[in-house]
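TA notes, week 10

Several of you asked for a full example with nothing omitted. So below is the full record: structure tokens for the whole chain, then the designed sequence directly under it. When grading your own attempts, check the secondary structure regions first.
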């Protein structure tokens, strides 16, 4: 419970829903998100991230910040340490706590002219759970949801979610609170985030803090500071596209009511005639506050969390950028690097989920934007340190962009964290393409990260390979495992092979794994221009 004391006045904030008289929820939210008002700064206040039941990152210096009256002396105390500072001319203050080992509960006390006491604070491992709808997808919507919810009795796992707010104005805080993980609190939380945190909690036996800031359908550029995009000419077409939308917004907003009224009439006529109603016109406000506008999510969702002590980030996004997969080769690394620079914690771990299999299976090899996006994700491994990719080409559902098996996704992410951040020897990286050697009308493809050796699922022969000559016409290939780390590929239709592809499709049929059961990473040996190479916005 958060307690705010001022003289003989005591106010308790339990976090329970309350009735707001005369104020709309939207109005209250705008006041909270904008940060403390000048009058409120007479009292010490903290952003929503600092509250009862929170988890602070163990074994590192952690920043605590907030607001007070300009020049006001502020003291932060927890677990035997005390830090003092003064609020600056703008009322902002911050301190750095000394590293603390895992444990708790502790009480954090923040004193200025008033006192704020935060109870039940734990020290452990903190992870950001970010991306789009597959990260946002809740426990209640996932596989075996009924059993998972009943079993979610982990009070030392703590959860907090950041609301979806799209804006060009950097926000200082948000409306949310930390909660202990229990059946009644876990239902709406990120399933991948929770299952990932549960794996860590059970294995490491330390408190876990999970910050869910995912936004369904979001584009990568919305998570990036706009000035960073403007500084690189390769994103000029993307920004020009949005500048045109912004320029036309006032007129579009004025015209929208008439368009909406006309649509309602047309839809009513269509339904009366048994026809399909026309598509509803888009509200211009949705574009301006939505999850595609560059910088919108960075300012409205990410900014209030930047600087909070974390171990790292898990990320599941890419679907919305699949049509611009070549651009994603640079956009995605830019996003990761910009987060790291602004957080000020060095190259913290950043692990993402490669796109799952989705849409219809195709009888013959063809080009695929989703395959190109997966390739862009894989390329990021060599672009930035301390990154990892969970391959889930075997977990998707062709008819559903939201596969229900979030447990399998989370376990593959957890393997990366356990192996790279916690010193536990566990298989974590999928087999990846290393090299190809042509031998007559056959090609031998070698892999790295094969563990105990390459293996296949269901049938003995590897499935999912395609091969082409210099004419660039791919056909389905035959294949056999030729060694611990190699596969021989050929087709009677290709006498002089020039390139090989594996699992190169929206929804490939493929079955190659490491000995530890991790699926081989989709790849191609060629660099021939793909279908998204010229797409810029």
């Amino acid at each position: 419970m958060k307690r705010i004391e001022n003289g003989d006045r005591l106010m308790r904030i339990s976090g329970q829903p309350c009735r707001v008289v005369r104020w709309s929820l939207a109005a209250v939210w705008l006041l909270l998100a904008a940060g403390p008002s000048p009058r409120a700064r007479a009292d010490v206040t903290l952003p929503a991230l600092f509250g009862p039941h929170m988890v602070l990152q163990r074994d590192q210096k952690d920043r605590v910040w907030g607001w007070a009256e300009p020049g006001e002396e502020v003291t932060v105390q927890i677990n035997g340490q005390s830090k003092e500072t003064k609020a600056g001319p703008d009322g902002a203050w911050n301190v750095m706590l000394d590293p603390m080992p895992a444990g708790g509960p502790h009480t954090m006390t923040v004193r200025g002219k008033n006192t704020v006491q935060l109870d039940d604070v734990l020290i452990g491992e903190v992870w950001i759970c970010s991306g789009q709808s597959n990260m946002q997808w809740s426990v209640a919507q996932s596989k075996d949801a009924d059993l998972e919810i009943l079993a979610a009795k982990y009070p030392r796992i703590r959860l907090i979610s950041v609301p979806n707010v799209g804006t060009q104005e950097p926000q200082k805080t948000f409306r949310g609170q930390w909660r202990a993980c229990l059946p009644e609190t876990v239902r709406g939380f990120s399933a991948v985030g929770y299952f990932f945190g549960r794996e860590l909690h059970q294995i490491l036996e330390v408190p876990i803090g999970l910050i869910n800031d995912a936004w369904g359908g979001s584009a990568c550029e919305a998570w990036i500071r706009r000035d960073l995009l403007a500084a690189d000419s390769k994103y000029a077409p993307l920004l020009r596209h949005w500048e045109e939308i912004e320029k036309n917004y006032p007129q579009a907003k004025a015209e929208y009511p008439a368009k909406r009224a006309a649509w309602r009439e047309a839809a009513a006529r269509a339904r009366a005639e048994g026809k399909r109603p026309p598509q509803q016109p888009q509200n211009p406000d949705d574009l301006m506050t939505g999850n595609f506008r560059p910088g919108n999510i960075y300012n409205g969702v990410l900014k209030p969390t930047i600087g909070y002590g974390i171990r790292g980030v898990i990320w599941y996004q890419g679907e919305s950028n699949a049509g611009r997969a070549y651009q994603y080769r640079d956009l995605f690394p830019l996003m990761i690097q910009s987060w790291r620079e602004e957080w000020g914690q060095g190259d913290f771990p950043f692990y993402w989920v490669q796109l799952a299999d989705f849409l219809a299976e195709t009888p013959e090899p063809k080009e695929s934007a989703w395959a190109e996006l997966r390739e862009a994700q894989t390329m990021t491994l060599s672009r930035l340190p301390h990154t990892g990719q969970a391959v889930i080409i075997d977990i998707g559902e062709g008819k559903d962009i939201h596969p229900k098996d979030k447990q399998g996704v989370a376990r593959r992410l957890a393997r990366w964290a356990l192996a790279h951040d916690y010193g536990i020897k566990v298989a974590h990286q999928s087999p990846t393409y290393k090299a190809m050697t042509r031998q007559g009308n056959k090609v031998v493809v070698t892999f790295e990260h094969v563990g105990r050796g390459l293996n296949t699922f269901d049938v003995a022969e590897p499935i999912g390979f395609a091969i082409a000559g210099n004419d660039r016409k791919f056909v389905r290939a035959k294949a056999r495992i030729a060694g611990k780390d190699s596969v021989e590929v050929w087709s009677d239709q290709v006498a002089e092979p020039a390139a090989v592809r594996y699992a190169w499709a929206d929804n490939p049929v493929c079955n190659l794994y490491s000995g530890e059961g991790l699926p081989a990473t989709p790849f191609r040996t060629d660099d021939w221009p793909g279908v998204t190479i010229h797409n810029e916005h």
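Residues 2-212 form a domain with the Immunoglobulin-like fold (CATH 2.60.40.10). Use that as a sanity check on your answer.
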